[in-house]
Amino acid sequence: PDIDWLETRLATTKSGDAHIKMVTVVNPCNPTGVAMPAEHLQRLSAVCSKHGVWLAVDNTYENFSYEDEGHPAHTCVSGDHVVNVFSFSKAYGMMGWRV
Fold this sequence. Notes:
Pfam families: Aminotran_1_2. With 99 residues, the protein is α/β, with parallel strands linked by helices. It has helices spanning 3-12, 38-50, 88-91, and strands at residues 22-26, 54-58, 82-85. It contains three helices and three strands. α1 runs parallel beside α2. 16% of the residues are buried.
């Protein structure tokens, strides 16, 4: 995402129905497998924290990235405003299995 655009949007939508409560990113992106650099995720996290917005980072496809980033998203962003999501069934090819 364009973080400068997002920060402007968050600063101008503080009231009413347009208030943004959560930003969600899929990292790495599906279907391309492109992962955001750690610095990008950290800046996104800082912007969300500054504006009191939740950041949900969907790490479902972290095992399917072939980029040499060397970092899962959950190791580079954390905080009271961050939710990291992971899917055991997708990571281990168990899509049809349910407990």
